[in-house]
Structures are given as structure tokens and as C-alpha cells.
Amino acid sequence: MAKACDNKKPPEVEIQFYLNQQFISVSNPNPTETLLDFLRLNLKLTGTKEGCAEGDCGACTVLIGKINEYGELVYRTANSCIIFLPSLAYCHVISVEGLTGKSGELHPVQEAMIEASGAQCGFCTPGFVMSLYGLWLKGSKPSKQKILDSLQGNLCRCTGYGPIIEAAFKATKAGSISRKGSTLQQRNWKNKLTKLMNGKESIVSEIPKSFSLPRTILELKTILSHNKEGTIVAGSTDIGLWVNKSFKNVKPMIFIGQIDELKHIKIQNDKIVVGAMASYTDLLAVLPRYFPELKQYINQIGGDQIRNMGTIGGNIANGSPIGDLAPILIALGAKMALVNHVGSRKINVESFFQSYGCQDLKPGEFIRYFEIPLKQKTDTKFRVYKVAKRRYEDITTVSAAFYFEFFAERQPIVRFAFGGMAEIPKRALTLEKVFKEQASSLDQDLIISKAIAMDFSPLTDCRGSSEFRLKLAQNLFKKFAMYVNEGIEIDIEKGP
Amino acid sequence: MKVKKKSKAVTSAKELKSEKHESLKKFVTGRALYIDDMPTEAETLHAYIGKSDFARGTISEIDYKDVNSFPGVIDVFTAKDIPGINDISPTGMNDEPVLVDKEVSFFGQPLFVVIASTRAQARMAASLARIRKEEKEPFLDVSDKHHKDYKLVTEPLILERGNVTEGLSGSKNRVSGNMHIGGQDHFYLEGHIAIAKPEESGDLLVFSSTQHPSEVQHMVAKVLNLSSNQIVVRVKRMGGGFGGKETQSNLFAVIAAISTHRTGKTVKIRPDRDDDMIMTGKRHSFFVEYKVGFNDDGQIKALDAQLSAKCGYSSDLSGPITDRALFHSDNCYYYPNVRLVSKPVKTNTVSNTAFRGFGGPQGMLLAERIIQEIAFFLNKDTLEIRKINLYAKGKRSITPYYQKVTDNISERIIDELVRSSDYHTRKKEIMNFNTGSQFLKRGIALTPVKFGISFTATWFNQAGALVHVYTDGSILVNHGGTEMGQGLHTKVLGIVSSVLGVTLDKIGISDTDTSKIANTSATAASSGSDLNGMAAFFAAKKIRRRLENFISKKYKVDKKDILFTGNSVIFDGQEYAFSEIVRNAYMARVQLWDSGFYRTPKIHWDRKKGKGRPFYYFSYGAAVSEVLLDVLTGEYRVKKVDILHDVGQTLNPTIDLGQIEGGFIQGMGWLTNEELYWDSLGILKTHAPSTYKIPLASDRPDDFNVRLADWAKNTEKTIKRSKAVGEPPFMLAISVHEAITMAVASTCNYKINPRLNTPATSEIVLESIGRIQSENLV
Ligand SMILES: Cc1cc2nc3c(=O)[nH]c(=O)nc-3n(C[C@H](O)[C@H](O)[C@H](O)COP(=O)(O)OP(=O)(O)OC[C@H]3O[C@@H](n4cnc5c(N)ncnc54)[C@H](O)[C@@H]3O)c2cc1C
Ligand code: FES
Ligand code: FES
Fold this sequence. Notes:
The structure holds two protein chains of two kinds.
Chain A: E1 14-19, E2 22-27, H1 35-42, E3 61-67, E4 73-79, E5 92-94, H2 108-115, H3 125-137, H4 144-151, H5 162-174, H6 176-197, E6 211-212, H7 217-226, E7 231-233, H8 239-246, E8 253-255, E9 265-268, E10 271-275, H9 280-290, H10 294-299, H11 304-309, H12 312-317, H13 325-331, E11 335-339, E12 344-348, H14 349-352, E13 353-355, E14 358-359, E15 366-373, E16 381-388, E17 396-405, E18 413-419, E19 426-427, H15 429-437, H16 445-455, H17 466-486
Parallel strand pairs in A: 1-5, 6-8, 7-8
Antiparallel strand pairs in A: 1-2, 3-4, 3-5, 9-10, 10-15, 11-12, 11-15, 13-14, 16-17, 17-18, 18-19
Helix pairs in contact in A: 2-5, 3-5, 15-16, 16-17
Chain B: H1 13-16, H2 24-29, E1 45-51, E2 57-63, H3 65-68, E3 73-78, E4 103-104, E5 110-116, H4 119-126, E6 130-135, E7 158-161, H5 164-169, E8 173-181, E9 194-198, E10 204-208, H6 213-224, E11 231-235, H7 249-263, E12 267-269, H8 273-279, E13 286-294, E14 300-312, H9 318-327, E15 337-346, H10 360-378, H11 382-389, H12 410-421, H13 423-436, E16 440-453, E17 462-469, E18 475-479, H14 488-500, E19 507-509, E20 512-513, H15 528-555, E21 563-565, E22 568-571, E23 574-577, H16 578-587, E24 593-599, E25 604-606, E26 611-613, E27 617-630, E28 636-645, H17 653-671, E29 703-708, H18 734-745, H19 762-777
Parallel strand pairs in B: 1-12, 10-11, 14-15, 18-19, 28-29
Antiparallel strand pairs in B: 1-5, 2-4, 2-6, 3-5, 7-15, 8-13, 9-10, 9-12, 11-20, 13-14, 16-27, 17-18, 17-24, 21-22, 22-23, 25-26, 27-28
Bound molecules: flavin-adenine dinucleotide and FE2/S2 (inorganic) cluster (2 copies).
């Protein structure tokens, strides 16, 4: 409990966490200081590297252990270059320096990297080692696909990846014995973190200051009512770049990572309710059970680190025309709950996007959760596609989500939503109409292309020309139509 | 101690062969030091470059008010403050100013430098200058026919042999066409960085992430008006280079040096990734135009081609790069009549530079395009056309630059690979598949590589090394090459180890340092171990000879009967510790350290005449790639790759395989996903990993087999008859491009050559499918 301040000094704020074996307490941190800079510049721990400072290369990968909303301690990889210090409160951070034992003994993933010669220039190596460590912690014998998924957030320009993949196989085969010891350790850490967290107050204040760290929705409402111009920080996978690359002033910052209520994913009768702070990784654990097609799609968002950090709330709130969750939520007819200190409202996700950079989010409001209706019928047709320059860890050129529910007695439900085709994520209303009218004969290229051209006039940029985007939209729809009419799926991932 | 048998082998090379990279343990623990990790004084200052935000025009005024008043800013300097010569052009063309204050020639051109207490302050302040300017329309596109007034950055090269005009007119068949070949960003994981430290009386010690310490030394001396002996440049390791740190590190090193000169403090400069990508040169994009004449069985009669390169605003290394493009426009094929012309075009973009292959890959793409054209025209298998055109003996062994190909093993490599990859059966099976599949198509292709080894600037083909044997028997090696991940140090250590019979744990290698070896060449052109390895070999050999002399005199044994192995010296049935022999030799005043010097023999090149022997030897290889293509989205996956590659007698199979795999994947990136995009104003839009996509682990072929042609031997006397390995494998990836071509062409039954430009992004693929399908209807 902060003491009453009779002197004029602003109250001391402490961010406390563990780094490897060390307890760290930072007083009055600059809330835009990144973990990477803190490690390298303040602590002179230079094992963690900066390759891009924008979450794309993985050279800065660390593990963050956090007690989640269900009271479990979970370690996940993250990009330290876009994590701000306040996000680390009550966490256990493991950097590459923490992997090696006291007397210098190597961890099995390090041994495996040496054995497989998984490094040439070595600059990407600490990041890969940490990603492999994250994989190793998850349990033994992952499939090749799992290994590749876990390496999507790390770039290597030298090796061609072969030896690193080999190291992943080696390490995860060998690790099972010593992992028992680590379960014990985890229990220890859980106790430590719990102790650290308990008895601490939320960092909130009614006077606007550079940041706050609420723990409950109530606190968040209050803070926002006093800091209407403040920036909500969720996973900081967007905001990290605004700070690092655009020098944007984002203070005061309101970190919502401590609010457990915002992280739950629940099934309620005919819908899934997803808290705004649920990460892509959290979504992957639940959504594919109801929508199997989302597994591949969500795996095409960012790399593992970004999926661990980025949230559904941030992905929608940023209003990006190429945010990948928007077309899905729109096609599924999802709703979202917007809350401020006076009340709350529920709107369609579709209507949240008004025009470029302009969303239906009032000052002082935040997104609390999303409601995704479950399919009403088992023969509902739902397909999602993402095309980018590179198949994994790349920003969308065109994404599409097609939803078609057929009823004998009434109008079918048809929602076709696209990303990358307009200044906001948007439905193709003409195409939907044409489809409803002549669902079965809809492989006529001409009609489709005309309808799409009426719905969209996409722009040309470094990700693709306008013509290319139109062609893609048309062909993605063709894929869907083939699936609906003939049950054929075209997917190079699955092969011929 | 008695040993039973004298073994004949003098070296223990076999055991050393698969030595792993010397720094692996440091890499995996995060303890390997890169420049940014080096501890520096607390009062170290930080410099940052203020750059132009437009591509071409004139600056009328820069307002520095906000820059100067930003917290932490200590100094701001511009072009007029440079004490020496404001130029860092590597070939003496005087066309590359460090900073400009009036005429801007590309987006991202350095204008001024801010020095501040922290990097964040310097970086932020550098973004605050207000620039008043008059913009002009930039020259951007080398294929643009409208711009008659494009200038060249340097002298073009013409290679001509036979009579092209007659050759073409006398050919039964003729095809002409063109191709756009994209550039490539190096995307070394460690960006550029330099630290300059003040030494006594104005001297400087510079740490630079550079492949060319001597050049950095010369440039620093030049801009500061000092002499070379006042500057020491040191390099421990780089986090990747790939050619991007051959000349491009000069800028950052000289700025650190000027900053130190002005402030008297240690100064560090490290550009942000985006600025690194904006401010430094890349692989040249090319526009090639060709006319080829051939007979009915596909044998080439004549080739006439012009290769225009987007060089950027200055010459940098564009001369030798476009030369090398011409040198590789034949790849493995004999052209009876040929004319190749380079056109190094000046554009308002960052000055392009060295990148693995150094123009060779672009030239080789032309050769393979010619083969494609013939195959499509005659409706034959590309492999058949390749084989019929391979270099052979006698007259058919002469290159367009009159060097004879005497070490040709391309046919054997191709035949072995055809067999081991089961090329013919698979091709048949794939064609069948394509007939029955409308939206998924497959493609397969085999392409060979022949790559010339040596710097074409003959004088660069020299190197030096120092070997010190200390009295405790430990050894320290130093040589002029730099380590950037390619395993050069490991190879050199292996060489010294085998000469002196000392295990690797007793041998160290110290930072590359201009005060140890003078006048070094860039670690480039795949030549690192050929040159430095040989120099170290000579140095070690001299010491060994002296030890042999000493032993033979003192112990009265024949020199031939002395064995150096496993940290021991064995003679006369006795085994002595190496350290003991060394100590005895020291006491007897034997010199235990020495230098070695090597220059590549036999090479010469007359650029004016276009004749000579620019290359000491050639490296060979071939690859078969198979792809699966989604015709609706233009996306594809590389399913299977088989490689057979020639490194002569390998110095270290682990390292060589690593170079081959890594080179292949990097080449694949160049030809597939890695797209550089400038908008119409000349602003580079792909300057970060979010927009510029190098291959990921999941892009690696599902099935990837690499074999060394272990029967191959260098016919020239290189170090242990090995061959260079850095660059040649990069071009094996052309097989991927060609496999995609086949898959695309299958959409109109292989009747039309889709003439895929590179990189073959999904967009290019879809566009090509659309184009050939509509051509097919006509
Ligand atoms: C390397 C990399 C790869 C990426 N790849 C993809 C990709 O493939 N597909 C894709 O769609 N995106 C991608 N992104 C973008 C990014 O991951 C997403 O947009 C992410 O979902 C944002 O979530 P966040 O929690 O990190 O948001 P933050 O960065 O924390 O915030 C983003 C914005 O949302 C606001 N916000 C966050 N939560 C709330 C809330 N509950 N209520 C109101 N406002 C809120 C913030 O104030 C801010 O304006 C990538 C980003 C990086 C760095
Ligand atoms: S530095 Fe590249 S992801 Fe963090
Ligand atoms: S080893 Fe150099 S980037 Fe991976």
C-alpha cells in the first residue's frame, strides 16, 4: 500500500518482476522503455539481440512466464523489442543468459544447436535458442509442423534453417527426463510470482500520469474516465512499432494485461464469448474446435511470439484494413461489447469499422469482449483464406472469409468479408447478392469479377497491385464456390 | 614414451575435417560479442544520420533549430565540416560523398549527423530537421524507353567473340525477348555498426562491422586527412555480411570517426533496421534484352544481349559487378558467336553494391532464360537443350572472354544428379499429374552452375597471415580475412592445426586488424579460404620447417621421419609434447612466429580487349527442384530439392554443406518472395522485415538433399585442392524459378514460355498465367 504522500513528490511506482534468477524492481519506469533496451543498456545483458526492433526477426526473443487467468504459470515466447517494462509486472522473464546453468552447463536445446551446427554468423542464434526452449517446455516429440510453427517468428539469413530444424528434433527428443525437474522449478516460480503479486495494489491513479496498470475492469473504467486521451496497451504488437518506428507519443499508457476478466474465453449456449485481451495463441486453443478452418488461418498470423502477444481486441481496435481477424468476425456475424464508466453497448463488429482510421470507439471506451455465434447447422459452409507475399509471418495482401448457411424455409445467411480490398475490412455486398440469386451457377468468372469490381476498388502498394488484389478476391471466391458446389478444396499445404 | 609404429600420415586432417564452427558455444549461450555488445566507456556518445526524404532535387535550406535544441544533443555537423575529402567511393571515382548539402540523388541520402548522449536522443533529433527543397523527377526504371537521358555510372564492358550478326542471320531459328530481374536486400541479421575510439595524438581505433577493414582504414584516413598508419580498424565478427558490408560499412565507420575527431570521445553509430535498409545498397536489379539464334536440335549459334543494371546514384562496385554478370551470361554453355554488352545505368536510388554472386546470378539467369526460350520454341525438354550446349573440349571450350574452360565437370554432375534425383521418371509423372489437375500444377527443373573464382580485379587476389607459436605450445593465428558466419576462421584454424599437428583447443584466432596484416583485400568473391587459408598455411609451414631443422640437428634424425600430430612431435620412436619441443626451440633461439603471403597464380585480365584469364578455376554444381503451384492464388511451395555440388576436396564438410544450404535458400528468396518496391517518387517502401520477406523455416523445401561431389578435385593447386563455396550455391536456386516456369506453362500445355520475371511473387505468377492464357486464345 502506497503511503500517504505529504511531500510534493509524485508517488513512487515500482514495476517488479524476476529476470532469470534475479529480482528486478524498477522505480518510476519510463513506460515506453522496452525490455530489450532494459536488458542490453541497463543490465548489460547483451545475449539478446536487436535485429529489427519491430517484432519481425525474433533475434530478441525471450520467454515470459506469467500466471494466467486460471492460476497456472505459463511460459511463452515474446519479442522483447516491443514489450514495454510495465507489461512485465509480476512476470518471470527468461533471457538466453538464464538458460545456462550456474557452472556453465548447457541446456539441451543449446547442446542440440551445437550438435546440429545450427548457427553460422550466430546473430540470430540466441533468439532461436529461446524459441526452441519455448517449444521444449511444451512437451516432447512435436511434429515437424509444430516445429515449423514455433520457428515462424525467427529469421535466419545464413543457415537455410535445416540444422536448426534438426536441432529442434534433437532437443525435444532428449529433453523429457530433465523436464521433470523443471516442473518442480515451475511450482517454485509460481509461488514466487504469486507472493510478489499478492499484497500489491494495482497501479492506478486518478491524476493522469505516464502510465497505469489496472487489475480490474472497474479500475480500467475509472482510469479511462480520467484519461480519455490515454492509450490502451494490450499486447503492444502495434504500439511497440508506433513508439520504436514512428516516435509517436502514446502517453499516458493504460496497460490492460493484468485484467484477468478480459482474457476469458467462454462457451455460452450458441456463442463463444472472447475477452478482448485473449491472444492469438489463446484463440488457437479454442476456436478451431468449433471452426476447424481457423487453425491454419490463425497460424498464418505473425510468428509464434506475435501470436503469444497480440490480442483480438488490439487487432480489431486498430481499425486496420488488413487486420486478419476482422473478416472472420464479420463473416461469422460477431458482435462486440464496448464499455465505459457510464455504461456499455453491443454492436456488430462489421459496423465498428467506419472509414479509414475511424472506428466506432468513443474516447474513454474500451472493447470488453466479442461474441461469436456458433454455426446453427452442421452443413454450414465457412471458409477462410489469406494470401500474403510470404505464406507465414506476413501481413495480408488479401484475406477473405466466406460464410453461407442454407435454410429451406427462409433466406440463406450469406456473409462474404474481405481484408486488403478497401480502406476498412468490408463485406462484398454485390457478390453476396449475386450469390444468393444464383448460388449453383456461380462459377462464371465474368459475373464474379464484375460483382467484385463493383464492391471494391483496392489500392496498389508494395504488397500488390490493384489488379492483383481484384484477381485474388475473385479467385478466392472461386475456391469457395468450388467447395460449396463440388466439395473440392484447393490447398497447396495439403498437396495434390 | 615409446610408440609402436610410425604412421606415414603427417597430418590428422581427417579428424579435423568436420570441425564445427569455432564460436558455436558462444553463439548458443549469447556470449559471442558483436560490436554492439562490446563494453564501452560510460561517456560514449552516439551519432545518427539525418537523411533525405526525397529522391532527387536541390536543398534550399535545412533548419536545425529543433535538432540542436533536442535534449542530449551535443553536436551537429554537415558536409562542410568534414576535415578531409568528402568522398568514400571505393573505386576512386569520386562520386560518393559522405554527406551532401545541396544536390540530393536518392531517397535516404545522408545529409547531416547528430551526436548526442544516447542513441535514442540522436535518432530522434535526426528526424527533426526541417528540409526545404525543390524536387525533380527521379530516374528510376532502367527499362524505361522514355528516358533517353539516363547516364551511366561507369564504363560499360563489351565481350565479343565470333560474328554475332552473321551467326544470327545464319541461324535456322531466332528468338528475342527481355527479362526483368529484381534486386535483393542483404538482410544480414546484424545491421551496420561502428565505434571509433580516440587514441594518442589524433589517432583512431575503429571497430567496424565490415568485410573490408583495409578499405575502412583508407576511407577514415581520407575523410579526416590523416595517414593510414594513424588508423587501426578491427573486426571480431559480423552477424552476416553477404557483400553488404564490403563497401557499405565505410559510411558508418567514417561518421563514427569524424564524430570522435570532433568530440574527442568514443562514438558509436548503429542505424535502425529501417534506416540501414534505406541507406545502404542492395543487389542490382537488371533488365536484360537478348536475341538468340539456334538450329533445330537446339544448339546455340549466336547470342546478342545487353544487360542494363540499376546501379543507383554512384558507381560503388557496379563496374566489376556488371562485368561479372557478363562473365556468367554463359553459365555452362558454349556460344559460338556472342556479343554481351553491359549498361551500368545511373538511377536516383541508393547505390547498389556487392551481394553474394556479385552480378553472376543475374548473368546466369539470362543464360537459363535462353535455354528456356529454345526449349519452348522447339517443344523439347530444357535438360536436353542444356546438355547439347554444354562446354566441351577444343573449340567448344572457349568462353566469351577467351578463357578456356579446362576443368569442366558439368556433364558428370548433371548426369549423376539426373540419376540420383530420378529426374526423368519424376518429370513424366508430373506431366501426367498436370494433365489431370486444373488448379494445382507441378513443375520440375534441373539447372547447373559454373562459377568463376577469383577477384576480376587481379590485384585483390593476395592475402597475408601471421602465426605465432608461444612457448607454452599454444598458437595464435591472425589473417586478413573477416569472419561473418561463413566459417573462414574455422577453416583457417583447421589448416594451421593440420600443419603443426596441434589440436584446435590450443589454437586461437585474433580479431582481424589492420595493424597486424596490411593492405588486405575484402573478404569477398568466395575467396576467403583460398587466399587466407593458403597464407596461413605458408606461415605455419615456415615454422614447422624451422622446428624440423631444429629437431633434426639436435636429435640427429631425418626431417622426413618427424611426425607432428595430436599436440605431439614424434620421431625416433619417441613422443614429445609439442610444447616441450617449442620450449626447447625457443631456448635455442628459433623463430617461432612467421607470416605467410599468397597470391593467386596464372590469372590476368585485359578489360579493354575483353580478353584474359580472370578466373583461376571454376566451381560447379547442379540442382533439381520441384514445386507445387496453386493456379488460383499464384502461391507455390518448393516440395523437393536435390543438389550435387562441387567444392573440390572439402576443407570442412559441415561448413561447406552449411554454405550450400544457406546459399540455396538465400537464392530462392531472391527469386521468389524478396521484392524491393520503390514508388513512383523513388521512395523505397520495403525497408523493414514487415514488408521485405526473406525465407522462413517453413519455406524450406519439405525434402532437401544436398550432396558434395566428393570425387571432385581442384585441378589447380589450391589449399588442399579445395574449392571456394561462398557464392556458387546461391545460383542453384535458379532451378526453383525454372520449376515454377514449368508449372505456369502447364496451364497452356507448355506451348508458351511464360517468361517469368523475378522475383516470381504470387502476383507475377498470376499475371503470367493470365497473359499466356490469353495469348493462347489468340
Ligand atoms: C511482426 C508482426 C506481425 C504481425 N502479423 C500480423 C498478421 O499476420 N495479421 C494481423 O492481422 N496482424 C498482424 N500484426 C499486427 C498485430 O499483431 C495486431 O494488430 C495485434 O492484434 C494488435 O494487438 P495488440 O494486443 O498487440 O495491440 P496493441 O498494440 O496493444 O494495441 C493496438 C491498438 O488497439 C488498441 N486496443 C488494444 N486493446 C484494446 C481494447 N481492449 N479496447 C480498446 N482499444 C484497444 C490500442 O489502444 C491500440 O490503439 C503483426 C504485428 C507484428 C509486429
Ligand atoms: S529485434 Fe527483431 S523481433 Fe525484436
Ligand atoms: S546464423 Fe546468421 S542469421 Fe542465423
